[in-house]
Design a protein that fits this description.
Number of domains: 3
Structural class: alpha/beta
Low-confidence stretches: 291-313, 333-352
CATH topology of the largest domain: Aspartate Aminotransferase, domain 1
InterPro entries: CbiX-like (IPR002762), Sirohydro_Cobaltochel/CbiX (IPR050963)
Distance between the termini: 27 Å
Strand content: 5-15%
GO molecular function: metal ion binding; sirohydrochlorin ferrochelatase activity
Protein name: Cobalamin (Vitamin B12) biosynthesis CbiX protein
Oligomer: single chain
Keywords: Lyase, Metal-binding
Pfam family, one: CbiX
Radius of gyration: 26 Å
Shape: elongated
């Protein structure tokens, strides 16, 4: 029987009350699910994600259900956590990690907010709902999708309850901020404003929101302000987490890519469109050895020795009678000197010392003809060395390679990352970097080299 644990990934805090509340929630979740729950954090608290996964792997767990304990889908969920999970997959290839989705807009969370609202209203002096405005206050994000969830939840909370108005605001990062949100409620004619902190845990942010409401009381002494309790340990929060756990365990987790700023062009967020998935050593890579590739290698390639960033011997380009590169004639089958075998996974193409990444959309817009030429050559080359379908219907800066199975895509992704080539996966499709400045003898050859050697090894060795 597969030993399974829940990896509960919190944002992290240095507030003792907030941390205690998080750990209490993790304990309650473990009791409800009857499965071990391993808490971990992106920042400010320990253990980091990678360390928690390592501990689970050493303890003999064979499957982890990784749940981002976040209300919305933003940079932590889309970048930092996936990078941390991928690094762990490379270290523990025998460990299955299934990634869930953030809590998002769920009925159980809506019910929790409604209960917090009803409790606060019952404890306050009576004021007609027709003279009352609701103000849902979120943490705030640089991701439009996450911020839009706050607006959606506010509207759902307001529907059918008879309050005069509903609005929403944010503590930081985006607007409207708390003071402007409260001003808007007053301007709409509300006699009472009920402020609902849309936060999972207590802490400094909650206390600062309460302080801002207190300041508004001084500014508007003739109006009534009520602050509800945050979500906290409400049953609806537990139900929402368990829903996401069940979805992940059943392979039903689905990210909302329709309005993702990394895949769709939003005014004000053009720099994020098609941006590579990365993290840093304060979040997803916290606790990892900085500047070393050794820690991302599977255990059989580590052995206590450093991985060299020096380029290995590269086969020269071979041209056909039309002057085009004959990509399928550069490297030879099962020749014992073939660079595309197991030991080569610890070597690499000539760019090995730096990460080969896609370019930003602005660079592509500045040279569309050059980008089209690179995409065409990469498409021709990848088709020749893999016999796999190639798709260009991707975000700018990427070209897609459609694998035969998800298992194949995952294995190739792990192997290509070791070559220090940026790569992303969407189901069976691998996304590889492209840019208008990519040179035939340089970046194009590096992408094709990494794909050709890993594809060869999958077809000729793994599958056999």
């Amino acid at each position: 029987m597969t030993r399974t644990a829940i990896l509960l990934i919190g944002h992290g805090t240095d507030d003792s009350d907030g941390l205690a509340e998080y750990r209490q929630l993790a304990g309650m979740l473990q009791e409800r699910l009857d499965l071990p729950v391993q808490p971990c954090f992106l920042e400010l608290a320990d253990p980091p994600i990678g360390q928690a996964i390592d501990e689970c792997a050493r303890a003999g767990y064979q499957r982890l259900i990784a749940i981002p304990l976040l209300l919305g889908a933003a940079g932590h969920q889309k970048n930092d956590i996936p990078v941390a999970l991928q690094q762990a997959r490379l270290r523990w290839p025998e460990l299955t990690i299934q990634y869930g989705t953030p809590l998002g807009v769920q009925y159980s969370l809506l019910k929790a907010l409604a209960d917090r609202l009803a409790t606060a209203e019952a404890a306050a002096p009576p004021v007609p709902r027709a003279e009352t405005a609701l103000a849902l206050i979120g943490r705030g994000s640089s991701d439009p999708d996450s911020n839009a969830d706050v607006a959606r939840m506010a509207r759902l909370l307001w529907e059918g309850r008879g309050y005069a108005h509903v609005t929403y605001g944010f503590y930081s990062i985006t607007t409207p901020r708390v003071p402007q949100t409260l001003d808007a409620c007053i301007a709409l004619g509300a006699r009472r404003i009920i402020v609902i902190p849309y936060l999972l845990f207590t802490g400094r942010i909650l206390r600062r929101i309460i302080a801002q409401v207190a300041a508004a009381r001084q500014t508007y002494p003739d109006h009534d302000f009520v602050v509800t309790e945050h979500l906290g340990l409400h049953e609806g929060v537990l139900a929402a987490i368990m829903q996401r756990v069940q979805e992940a365990m059943n392979g039903q987790s689905a990210a909302n890519c329709d309005v993702c700023k990394y895949r769709r062009l939003f005014p004000g967020f053009t720099a994020d469109f098609g941006r590579p998935q990365t993290s840093d050593h304060e979040h997803g890579l916290r606790g990892e050895a900085s500047g070393s590739m050794t820690n991302i290698l599977p255990p059989r390639y580590r052995g206590g020795r450093a991985v060299s960033a020096a380029p290995m011997t590269a086969a020269p380009l071979v041209f056909d009678e039309h002057g085009q590169v004959a990509w399928d004639r550069i490297w030879g089958g099962d020749d014992p000197d073939n660079p595309f075998c197991e030991l080569a996974l610890a070597g690499g193409p000539p760019h090995r010392g730096t990460l080969l990444e896609p370019v930003d959309p602005a660079t592509i817009q500045a040279d569309p003809a050059g980008y089209a030429r690179v995409i065409a050559e990469l498409r021709r080359a990848l088709t020749m060395v893999t016999d796999l379908p190639v798709t260009t219907d991707t975000a700018p800066g990427w070209i897609g390679l459609v694998c035969e199975s998800e298992e194949m895509a995952i294995w190739l992704l792990r192997a290509i990352i070791v070559e220090n080539v940026s790569v992303r996966r969407e189901d069976r499709t691998l996304l590889l970097p492209a840019g208008p400045h990519f040179r035939l003898e340089g970046e194009i050859k590096n992408v094709v080299t990494a794909v050709a050697k890993t594809y060869h090894y999958w077809k000729e060795h793994i599958q056999r």
